[in-house]
Amino acid sequence: MRAPTPIRFISTRGQAPAVRFDEALLQGLAPDGGLYVPERIPRLPATVWQQAASFSDMAADVLARWLQGVFSEETVARVTTEALSFPVPLVSLGEDLYILELFHGPTLSFKDFGARTMARFAREVLRRLDERLLVLVATSGDTGSAVADGFAGLERVQVGLLYPYGQVSPVQERQLIVQRPGVHAFAVHGTFDDCQRLVKAAFADPDFARVRLSSANSINVGRLLPQMLYYIWAVAVGAFDEVVFCVPSGNLGNLTGGVLAALSGLPVRRFIAAHNANDFFPRFLAGEGPAFGPSRRTLSNAMDVGAPSNFERLQALLGDAMPARIWGTSISDETTLATIRHVYETTGYLPDPHTAVGLAAARCYREATGDRTPLVVLATAHPAKFPEVIRQALEFEPEAPEALARLWQQEVSVVHVEADLEALKARLLPYVATGT
Q1: 189, 241, 295, 353 — which has fewest CB within 10 A?
Q2: Catalytic residue annotation
Q3: Please, which residues have CB within 8 angstroms of residue 287's CB and are 6 or more apart in sequence?
Q4: pLDDT tens for each residue of 47-94
Q5: Spatial separation of the C-alpha atoms in residues 222 and 136, rounded to whole Å
Q6: Which residues of 314-328 are buried (b: 16+ CB within 10 A; e: fewer)?
Q7: Using an 8 Å Cβ cutoff, are 136 and 172 in contact?
Q8: Of all helices (H) and strands (E), which one includes residue 424?
Q9: Closest CA relative to residue 102, chosen from 82, 118, 84, 121
């Protein structure tokens, strides 16, 4: 029997060789500065969601189709079982409006899906190659803690986290700076866009050439494939013939995962890109053309991205069909607070500010289009991660789960740096040299 032909991944900029998933996983960015996209997308039969017995079984089935010829089915099943051992409930708010809760992993955000799965696949590849890896991550909130938790203590891996100092919530910052083996947190005196710029610059800097460097942002295709999975699970649990997904959006990685699921055959009528005041993408979808701008600070801080990296991926995957497949809108802080208050008072459900942006956008979409297709809003983080915002909306703070409460008893470690590559190198490269 012939071995299956692995799916290859190509750069959005078309100037780099096609590579297998394991190579794309370790590289992060393509050599030409582009992002990896699949050369072909496997078609999933409807039985994948119609007959799904559990999330982990469904996840293993889907990823085995994408990773055949790279990892055995046994390896994929082991990785997904280890990485994704938490519930993914679908909650009905009535009137065919649902919330898919993605915050039941160890760091209480949807980033746990991609980060934990990617970390374990990277471990398999590094063992195979007998190599070490430096993972460099820019985060506006939840990505960094998920990556830190997912990779901490893994053999052969060190992690550098870059976050904008003073622009993440106190709980999120605590999650980032708690001491973990092999993880180094850097408080960058600048914006998230500065952090993202530093990560991209490091990939092109010769001083980093002596280490194998990768990223665990949604820049990395290893983060995106696991993010397809919960879209498929929502259709499985809801038994939907067709569905609209509303995605709280910043760097557009979460949305890109959904688009990959739709292109593989999932019955998605449309996506809603729910943005805060960082409204580049909704303006683009409305026909104003691509025009990145500086990020603006909002109450939904993990979405404060002025120049979303995955826009380039979405263009490569959808081209001119993007406005037909995705509807976008921008939600103000005032509407975010009003939505938290309204949803809690009318349904008893307490959304975090990012999920509230999604719920407000869902309402706008239905009012603008009249579309009554079942609509699923992705709940991207636990509300207890944003006690200040919840207090502002409702005059009380949500009870902190044990995973958050114990953060304040743990030791922390953080290094402050200016938004300058030379300053970062001076503080990070000594860790790399010593392997500590």
Answers
A1: 241
A2: 111
A3: 323
A4: 999 999 999 999 999 999 999 999 999 999 999 999 999 999 999 999
A5: 14
A6: bebbbeeebeebbbb
A7: no
A8: helix 421-434
A9: 84
